[in-house]
Amino acid sequence: MINYEKVRQVTYLNADKVDRYRRIMRFFYKQNQRMNNLLFKSDILEGVRLSGLTGYTNEQMDNDLSELVEWGNLQAQQEMSQPKTIEEYRNKHFRYQITTIGIVIEEFIQSLPEEDENTSDLDSHMFKRFLESLTALNSSSNQKLLDSWEDLQTRFDRIRKNATGYIAYLTSKKMEDLIQTTEFLDYKLEFIKYLREFIRNMQKTSTDISEALIAVSQNTITNIVKLQESHVSNMAGFGQRDVKDIDKRIRDTWKFICHWFIDTDGRESEYNNLISQTNEAICRVTSIIQAITESNQQHQSRSNDYLKIAEWFQILADSNVSEEESFREANKFSATLFGISKIKHMQSSAMDITNQLDDIWKMTVPTTELISKSRKNRPRVINKPFIINSKKQAEIKKEYREKAKEHQQIWRKYLKNEELILSDYKYLPKQMRRELIRYFSDAMTSINHRVSTRLGWIFEITIISDKKVTVEFDDGYLTLPDTRFKIVEKIS
């Protein structure tokens, strides 16, 4: 049973005399690394003074050591030498050593980073190695199965930590400030390329990981539980080993791994969330880079350009032609550089260009009515009440059902025994192409590979990833893994 009481061993980290306690514990920790465990008081006093606490006294040290022993950070061991005087008998000699918990606390303090920075990287190779460990579960037994399970947990834990850290980094204020600097423009292309390459490699392994997770049977998980319980029971050591929570812990871990990669109950998986966050980062970086570039162009000095233009105008003014001719040439030059001073934008409806060989002068010019933009001259808008037209609604419903029935008949032409296998056909109507792609995409993210369709059927879709097929449509070709669409339920 887990104990949620106060941990007294960490009391010295926030005590009033924390400076003295920390120096003592750090000295014990360093001596323990040198295999010097049992320390005399004189050695402790000298070590603390060398750390910078020069005014440290014996009385202070005795009080501090007693506190640390009481809190469970140090252990005191009495010297067994024979006292020669009454004073030596009264003043018992002790040697001190750091406890196991004290060592763990000091190691933890040393491992703390100076800043809470997210520096995890996106390594698509992690997912390939995870897939290798996942595939090995179905082909292993006994000790190799347990080893594969441990490798799978280690690699998944690394993926989870790196993904969490990198998403936090992409959405952090530090990242936001970095991409808004002009220095970021120097390696913007490499950064975007890095993210896109990561997404591309992730999408390659997405289907394989989902299929491998589904392929792992519950018998395999049960065998892992039995092997782990046997391993813990046979471990050498004193006391009885607790194996009660092993079954729940392993099954919860496996459930969490599956939910991390596969969407469940309408909730997006962390795997897909990672791809979405990376795509959003690419869009955000691209938009900010564009804004920085436009801002730099706006603030760029054009003084040299204007001086050159003024020089050209001066040449026209100094020419030998008349003042009227010079003014006319200056107007032409101004129109070339800056455009016409007063422009009217006209827009008309599209012209009927059915035959590109017709003479442009023979085409019928559409008539466009120019409406005033003034608010005073705008036509008054009269609000009309909404009228429910039951007859019109019935006609639209009837038309929709007829189209759905026609579309269903197209599918029925290619269904054999309530199923369609892509490799059986080299040609399919173009009306089926978009739905085939949509059903195929939905099946990859579904746990049971079942998809509800507008045809009134529920398809169970089986993807044969190691076999590619190419199907011809009226408007092109489509290449994808061979797939079987089977009707398992009719909902209308």
In terms of structural class, how would the helical and strand content be classed? alpha+beta
Count of separate structural domains: 4
* Count of strand segments: 6
- Ends apart, CA distance between termini: 54 Å
* Helix share bin: 40-55%
Largest sheet, in brief, is: 4 strands, antiparallel
Strand portion, in percent?
5-15%
Shape: flat
Question: What ranges have pLDDT less than 50 throughout 5 or more consecutive residues?
Answer: none
Q: From the alpha-carbon coordinates, what is the Rg to the nearest angstrom?
A: 39 Å
Instruction: Spell out the helices and strands N to C.
Output: HHHEHEHHHHHHHHHHHEHEEE
Spatial order of strands in the largest sheet:
3-6-5-4
> From the structure provided, what is the oligomeric state, counting identical versus distinct chains?
single chain
Number of helices: 16
